[in-house]
Every structure is written in structure tokens, then in C-alpha cells.
Design a protein that fits this description.
The chain is an alpha+beta fold. The chain is built from 7 helices and 9 strands; from the N terminus they run H-H-E-E-E-E-H-E-H-E-H-E-E-H-E-H. It has one domain: Aminopeptidase (3-Layer(aba) Sandwich), CATH 3.40.630.30. A hairpin with a 6-residue loop joins strand 1 and strand 2. The protein is globular, with a radius of gyration of 17 Å. It starts with 32 loop residues before the first helix and ends with a helix.
Length: 209
């Protein structure tokens, strides 16, 4: 899998930066996948030619297509099934309000929502790898499910990873491995470094203790 072109927020057309165009406004914790995905796909189809101009990258399955856009510093990736003409899921690379401005420049927290029929096909993994390949550094949320933790551990085989304590908008490095009790703490987060990053540079640029 390889991006169609080098990723750059600055290179995106201005219309892609409008947050209302493809907003995701259904709380996934309270909705079935179809409730979240169908209205988003309807808005995508209403964009007509502008949808075709949206940047994309290649997935291993030729029947699926990944398109992406940026709004307010957050990156949205949408996966379509081109044979069935439906949206099968999305990943949002969110900004973290817990970070200070300096760390916010470099770190995003991914959240994914996929139709159950398309889960366990490596789609979230492929999207995360794509983001990491673009040099985006990822950080987990306050708690990870066992499945999400396994995914991040798998990605850590190709990308520098570690754990931090995040509180009062400061990051404190905990090491490459932590005890189970530490991992369960709400302040403990896992991170993955995008291509081009070293741990030393990351510590310096995000002011990690």
C-alpha cells in the first residue's frame, strides 16, 4: 500500500477544509454503525465532482477506496466499497485537548468506526500505517480495548513506540513497556512515531520529560 502522492495539509484544496462538508455528527457510542455511516456517505455523494477531487490512497483491496480530508487540524479518512456503493467506515485523527500547543502540532489520536461486516479485514491498521508513513505521530486515548491495544502493539513492530503519563498538558516518558497496573491508569497513553521521527526528536519537539 502506498500513498498516491506525498501528504501535505497545505496542498489540499480550500473546499476540503470546510468542517461542515462531511462532518461526523453522530455519537458512535450511542449509535449503530449504519446510523453513523449512512448520513456521512449521503453527504459525500451530494458533493458530486468535488468528491472525485478529494485526495485518496491505495488499499490492498481494489474494491475499496480511501479518501481523506482535513478540517481544523483533524484528518478524516473515509473507506468506500466501490462495488456496493457504500461507505464502510472511517477513521478520524483527532486533536487532543489534553496537549499543549507545542505537542498539538505533531500528535493526533485516531478513532475508527467500521461496519461490522468489514471489521477484521485490517482496514484500521492500513489507515493507521498510512498516517504513520506520512510522518504523523499517534497517541492512544485514555483507555484502549484489548483489540485496539493489540493493533497498536502490532504497529509498534515497524514504528517506534512507547508510553507516557499525560496530565496538566505535560508528557512524561514512561518507557517502551509498562506494568499492567500502569497501563490501566487513565493518564497512561501509548504513542507511535511517524516516519522520520526519532525518540530524541519527539521528546524535544513535544517537550516530553
Amino acid at each position: 500500500m502506498a500513498p498516491a502522492a506525498p501528504f501535505s495539509f497545505a496542498a489540499l484544496p480550500r473546499w476540503l477544509l470546510r468542517p461542515a462538508e462531511l462532518r461526523i455528527d453522530v455519537d458512535p457510542r450511542k449509535a449503530r454503525p449504519a446510523d453513523t455511516l449512512l448520513p456521512v456517505h449521503e453527504r459525500m455523494r451530494a458533493m458530486d465532482d468535488r468528491l472525485q477531487q478529494m485526495p485518496h490512497f491505495v488499499l490492498d483491496d481494489p474494491g475499496l477506496r480511501a479518501r481523506y480530508r482535513e478540517a481544523d487540524g483533524e484528518l478524516y479518512v473515509y473507506i468506500e466499497d466501490v462495488r456496493r456503493g457504500c461507505l464502510v467506515g472511517y477513521t478520524v485523527f483527532n486533536r487532543l485537548i489534553e496537549l499543549d500547543r507545542r505537542a498539538d502540532r505533531h500528535i493526533r489520536a485516531p478513532h475508527s468506526q467500521y461496519d461490522p461486516a468489514y471489521q477484521r479485514r485490517g482496514l484500521a491498521s492500513a489507515v493507521y500505517r498510512w498516517a504513520l508513513d506520512q510522518g504523523i505521530c499517534l497517541m492512544s486515548g485514555a483507555r484502549q480495548s484489548p483489540g485496539a491495544h493489540a493493533l497498536w502493539q502490532s504497529l509498534s513492530r515497524q514504528h517506534e513506540a512507547g508510553f507516557v503519563d499525560l496530565r496538566h498538558k505535560r508528557l512524561s516518558y514512561l518507557g517502551r513497556e509498562v506494568a499492567a497496573a500502569t497501563l490501566a491508569e487513565l493518564h497512561t497513553r501509548m504513542f507511535l512515531l511517524g516516519d522520520g521521527w526519532t525518540l530524541a526528536r519527539f521528546r524535544r519537539d513535544v517537550r516530553m520529560d
